[in-house]
Amino acid sequence: MKQQALKPLANFGNNRRQHMNNASGDGAKGFTIIELMVTVAILGIVMGITITESGRAYNRDKLNEASLLLSGWLDEIANEPDAIGQSCTVTVTTGAIASGGQIASVTPTTCSSTPTLRLPGLSNLSFTVGATQTSWSFTRRNAIDATSDIDIKLSLSNFTALRCVRVRAISGLLRLGRDNTTSNVSSTCSNWSTI
Length: 195
Fold this sequence. Notes:
This protein is α+β, with helices and mostly antiparallel strands.
């Protein structure tokens, strides 16, 4: 009988020790303030990197979008002289152009369903446009009246990348190029395999 009476007292001591260990922090469940601060600091660093990279990806996508838009528009115009029986003259606007601004136009207006091409206007980006020749004509069979290649170059302010649309001399074939080491529209694209 005595042994049975002592067992609850022995358990009482164990429970009390376990309670005191939790109160003093040994074996406590939860996080210390230092652990929480380190976790918050790591999350802050990761978020900072993520936001910076997503901003770069956004700018790169907008620059690619503008060059693909220009290339598609020129391709549409290149096919029109055969259909309408006359040449189509393209004029490129150079210099700083805000989003939504005019990048190029074509005359006569029957050469394109969009006679005035505007840059993508969904953001507050500023583009810089350069061209080796600002005006030329597409003639029949997709040809152009220029004897040298025409490069139209696009860049974004505060972003190091250059995109080019090349109109090949005489043939009028279009190529897309890029140079991710400069944003100077006086330079030329070094890679013509992809944008």
